[in-house]
Amino acid sequence: MMLIPTHHFRDIERKPEYLQPEKCVPPPHPGPVGTMWFIRDGCGIACAIVTWFLVLYAEFVVLFVMLIPSRDYVYSIVNGVVFNLLAFLALASHCRAMLTDPGAVPKGNATKEFIESLQLKPGQVVYKCPKCCSIKPDRAHHCSVCKRCIRKMDHHCPWVNNCVGENNQKYFVLFTMYIALISLHALIMVGFHFLHCFEEDWTTYGLTREGTAEARISLHEKKQPPKVSSTECSSFSPPTTVILLILLCFEGLLFLIFTSVMFGTQVHSICTDETGIERLKRKHQPRERRGSWKSVKETFGGDLSPSWLNPFSGPCDPKPLRDRDWVRQAASLSDTDNTETTEEQSEERKDEDSVEVTDE
Predict the structure, then answer these.
(1) d(C-alpha 47, C-alpha 66), whole Å
(2) Are 296 and 277 in contact (CB under 8 A)?
(3) In terms of Cα–Cα distance, which of 289, 247, 267 is closest to 176?
(4) Nearest CA to 156 among 305, 64, 44, 60?
(5) 89 or 197, which is more confident?
């Protein structure tokens, strides 16, 4: 059976001499525990700044346009506390998702000494990433923006300027959930504000210039103070208020749809124990698949509790990688390799060392 060019290319990559592990620089010593993780990407930093700006704009409109001018103090206090609490949790989740190591594989550990220390047996392979010179454990993928291999990488999100991976997926899910909630809350308040103001205050703003001038002259002659409406809709003029509310309505609707979809896809990925990249590539590799509830508990940090909604409590502590976690069986190669016959694989292994090192 002849191999197609793709198979032939993969056969060449399997040669240990192709990977040249001796050229890998040994990994640096790990930093102290709690070292901040931050990706220096211009696009990601800009998107993160825009995210904060939009949340702060919503805060400004909700507080200074709708709640503070209102004479209904109970309405203002209750909605102000709820909105600010959700906004604080959203920004806290954003910071945790952005500044948490998503599960980066040690860089440059694909050295000859490390590969030899694994003491691989015939039929076992290790994957080496040629871009960051790292041995890739199962379900790890290389991110071209972070320039690292990330364990259980789902995708790279520019809005949090980070990858969504094993260690920060909980924070990303909370971020999308809280943004969706404040967007929905803002839209509801904007709807009530429009109905209330059109009914109470803004109906008197339609006076013509002549009518307004005559009213001023009449009040000046009678030396009486102008009557003030019992309900103040905003400290801004009605046209300015309308523009601010329309912009907030557009922002809230856009982010409600976007974050709701992202929240749904992330929850689905957690429950099915399949990342977005795995869903796209459909790599059916033989691995232990956890039950949906177990996967949820590991992502959010233990049994169901209020800490699931707390961005300051982390997920379950990831277990340190052991030697066997770096090793995979030859049967776990991609589907394209599975088209080769057993006889061909046997013949190929005769020309290779007893240990296979596969570039991926």
Answers:
(1) 27
(2) no
(3) 267
(4) 44
(5) 89
Higher confidence at residue 27 or residue 116? 116
Distance CA 174, CA 181 (A): 10
CA distance 291 to 299: 12
- The CA R_g of the chain, rounded to the nearest whole Å, is 29
Q: How many CA atoms lie within 13 A of 305 on its CB side?
A: 13
Q: Which residue has the tokens 């459909």?
A: 282
Instruction: Using the predicted structure, report yes or no on whether residue 18 has a pLDDT greater than 70.
Output: no
**Start-end of H helices in 16-72:** 16-19, 42-60
Q: Write out the catalytic residue numbers.
A: 157
User: How many CA atoms does the CB half-sphere of 261 hold within 13 Å?
Assistant: 5
- Which amino acid appears at position 112 of this protein? K
When pLDDT is cut at 50, 70 and 90, the band that residue 187 belongs to is very high
**pLDDT tens-digit series, residues 308-360:** 999 998 776 666 665 556 666 555 444 433 333 233 333 333 333 334 555 56
